[in-house]
Design goal:
It is a single chain. By secondary structure, the chain is α/β, with parallel strands linked by helices. The protein has helices at residues 20-35, 59-75, 89-95, 108-118, 160-164, 172-184, 220-228, 249-253, 270-276, 285-295, 314-327, 354-377, and strands spanning 11-16, 39-40, 49-54, 79-83, 101-102, 142-146, 148-149, 168-169, 189-193, 208-211, 214-217, 233-236, 260-262, 300-307, 331-336, 383-391, 397-401, 412-414, 425-433, 438-442. α1 (20-35) crosses α4. Bound molecules: iron/sulfur cluster. Iron/sulfur cluster is lined by residues 151, 153-155, 158, 160-161, 195-196, 279.
């Protein structure tokens, strides 16, 4: 009888110092490493890498931590330091330059990522119970890539900061590793999400991390450029028009990032935007949009708006409609303002009556549908790259152009497309358009 040789998983040793909080951190790290397929080693000799979870509360605790690191290096040599002393990385590096990585307290993802780099798991279905790219709820060909959590803004209608706290960005190398795995597992389109993508890395002071022999900074532009090199479509969501966004547009023109920006403007009237406390609220946005289109004529801008925000007058609303005429956004969604429990906007004066809200909403939708229809009609006759989302048994298929994000934007309906498969990216001749969708046929087999 043939026996199956299982690859042996790497073993991790752990030295846990400090208080009960540090102990809980150690348990969490070990739980994650176990679920990733690692084994634990009770001694230095059997470990492929040793984690030292340090305490830095008192000078005596620091000394104890440093001597534990020294012992682990002498006994094993491959050491990763985590915990409270992670804040004093320079001190540790000065004393022990051979330490493989240093991460701070509660940075689980970072320390687990460092273990994966120091002692990679050999690919095996028996060790990796969870696919390399993680368990996904989206189809295989597109994936959401979360780059940060929380938000530093305090928009009056929003309670996300009170639910999720201030901005906490993920390390760029951890994001890149996840993106690489997703692409290797079949993802053709990466959808970059966060609460505020343009603020990515502010909390990390835009520091750089080593990546592929070079480095990648925790900054939207740098991350977008690196993601663009993976060969998948990269789509940026929730971008605020800070000045540095201008630097992403050339990446779009060069084909590294999709020519698509999802900017939740929410309004155009300076008075309403001020009452909303919106970030990057500045008068020159229309000029900037014009500039972006000069650099990248195909850029699709999608946005959402709120109508009937407290204090919105007919004049403010008319300003918004005129602004839309100028901005010529490609995709637009709208919400009627609704108070959310706990939001600052709930106490604002000038509540807009429901019937006025409805009437404005209808005018808004009429305006944006007309703009969208004209923009889509202008695409008839062009040949566009389309990613296939679904193929139907009658020989048709549904896909999206670079201007369409899944779920929120329009679709491209194809005829004579039975030979295509989900995730294919094909050239399509656009034959027709309506207010939201395009219709076409694959250019050639
Ligand atoms: S709406 Fe404002 S406060 Fe809420 S998540 Fe977005 S930027 Fe942050």
């Amino acid at each position: 009888m043939e026996t199956l040789e299982l690859p042996s998983p790497p073993k991790v040793g752990m030295v846990s110092l400090g208080c009960p909080k540090a102990l809980v951190d150690s348990e969490r790290i070990l739980t994650k490493l176990r679920s990733d397929g690692y084994q634990m080693s009770p001694d230095y000799a059997g470990a492929d890498v040793v984690l030292v979870n340090t305490c830095g509360f008192l000078d005596s605790a620091k000394e104890e931590s440093l001597s534990a690191i020294g012992e682990a290096i002498a006994e094993n040599g491959r050491v990763i330091v985590t915990g409270c002393m992670g804040k004093e990385a320079e001190l540790i590096r000065a004393r022990f330059p051979e330490v493989l990585a240093i991460t701070g307290a509660a940075q689980y993802e970072d320390v687990v990522g460092a273990v994966h780099v120091a002692a990679p798991i050999p690919p095996s279905a028996y060790l990796n119970l969870v696919p390399d790219a993680g368990l996904k709820l989206t189809p295989r060909h597109y994936s959401y890539l979360k780059i940060s959590e929380g938000c530093n803004h305090r928009c009056a209608f929003c309670i996300i900061p009170s639910l999720r706290g201030d901005l906490v960005s993920r390390r760029p190398d951890a994001i890149m590793r996840e993106a690489e795995k997703l692409v290797a597992a079949g993802t053709k389109e990466l959808l970059v999400i966060s609460q505020d993508t343009s603020a990515y890395g502010v909390d990390l002071k835009h520091a750089a991390w080593p990546w592929k022999g070079g480095e990648v900074r925790a900054h939207m532009t740098d991350l977008a450029r690196e993601l663009g090199k993976l060969g998948a479509w990269v789509r940026l969501h929730y971008v605020y028009p800070y000045p540095h966004v201008d630097r992403v547009i050339p990446l779009m023109a060069d084909g590294l990032v999709l020519p698509y920006l999802d900017i939740p403007f929410q309004h155009a009237s300076p008075k309403v935007l001020k009452a909303m406390k919106r970030p990057a609220n500045e008068a020159k946005v229309l000029e900037r949009i014009r500039g972006w289109r000069e650099i990248c004529p195909d850029i699709a801008i999608r946005s959402t708006f709120i109508v009937g925000f407290p204090g919105e007058t007919e004049e403010d609303f008319a300003y918004l409609l005129d602004w839309l005429d100028e901005a010529q956004l490609d995709r637009v969604g709208a919400f009627r303002f609704e108070p959310v429990g706990g939001a600052a906007a709930n106490g604002l004066p000038g509540v807009v009556p429901e019937e006025v809200k409805e009437e404005r909403y209808a005018r808004f939708m009429e305006k944006t549908a007309a703009i969208s229809a004209a923009k889509l009609a202008a695409k008839v006759g062009r040949t566009l790259d389309i990613i296939i989302d679904a193929v139907d048994p009658e020989g048709g298929a549904t896909g999206r152009s670079k201007a369409d994000a899944p779920e929120i934007d329009g679709e491209v309906h194809l005829r004579d497309a039975g030979h295509l498969a989900q995730g294919d990216i094909v050239k399509v001749i656009i034959e027709d358009a309506d207010e939201h969708d395009l219709f076409g046929v694959p250019a050639a087999r």
